[in-house]
Amino acid sequence: MLLGAIADDFTGASDLANTLARGGMSTMQFVGPGRGKVNCEAGVVALKTRSISAEDAVWQSMDAARWLLDQGCEQIFFKYCSTFDSTPEGNIGPVAEALQRLTGANVTVVCPAFPATGRRVFMGHLFVKDKLLNESGMENHPLTPMTDPDIRRWLRLQTRGGVGSITLDTVREGSAAIRSRLRDELTDGNRLVVVDAIEDADLLTIGEAVVDHALVTGGSGLAQGLARNFAMRGKLSDLPPDVPAVDGPGVILCGSCSLASQNQVACHLQNHPGLSIDPAAIVRGSMSVEHAARWVAANAADNPIVYSTTSPDVVSFVQQRFGREESARILEDFFGSLARRLADSGTRQIVVGGGETSGAVVEALGLKQMTIGAEIDPGVPVLVSERGRPMRPLGLALKSGNFGSPDFFAKALDRIAGHE
After folding, report:
1. What is the pLDDT confidence band of residue 195, given thresholds at 50, 70 and 90?
2. Which of 8, 215, 342, 418 has a Cα-to-Cα distance from 398 of 20 to 30 A?
3. What is the residue-wise DSSP string for 50-88?
């Protein structure tokens, strides 16, 4: 293994794995640290640490990093969301500082930019297309609301050390200028440094500047430069991954309430049956996993969708009634149990919307590792694992709430089946 990566949620892990695979690295995604030695050039460990306590997030991330280092990897990459989803307590800052201590990294870049999806960092501020993050509508995450677009200021709340920044002017001067500026920031006591990037070319330049860094942090866009570094040093094989097409009954499970997910659900419902899930109905017992599974079976030929996607106002009302963490737990347990029930009864394609929902589904299915297939939309690849007795291929797509075109769900099922 050349590059070892840690992602703080499951959709972020597949987003990163997709970027590395497109960059020519043989890539595998693992659910938590693997066991023993593995055979790949890039290993991405998917964790569910974005919305847990900072202490637990640090412990799990360190455990994953130690396993990756045991594989012989030359560089650790800590991947977080391109909207820097976190709270004033963490977990991005505490995990980054802990990984610095483990790897011995003196100074580390921080760059969540992902221009292909409209996320750009300029003057230390995070933009979503033409709006500051806190004005974009994406700041309303139900568990990790991101209300400050100034990454430097937000990161200072989460960390013990200093936080510096490198402007776009320096990035455009080239990788040598970035390296020089990083040395200056370290001299000033800033070990975490937010770096501007508004185009993919900027990310490639930053990647070139950190070629010898033990630790790099950022969104998946930054990984383009890391993959290119290994390719330019002649360390990558030319063998394409063997990823089979997976046909059979399919279902969409969507727990994300982002604006993009709302549009995607509405688009899918125009031509396919849907079942709306209300946490109150689960608590009352009027909605159960068994009921939903029977409904999916009855509509299996029409690519059905089961969703709890709704507007921020409704989410706020549900959270006030059940509590933020409890309402999330109710829905995650429901979707995880439903996915396991459907896979056990023959469903071969599962498309999931939302990071927390994706984590719950993958954990409930008991999957340990996944091979990276074709890209569906920017940041979202086909994933293929094996499950059951005897083992059979299971095709998945794990979509971050804010990613994907309006017709993503139907497109994902086509890609999993091997259709263009």
Report:
1. very high
2. 215
3. SSS-HHHHHHHHHHHHHHHHHTT-SEEEEE--TT---BT
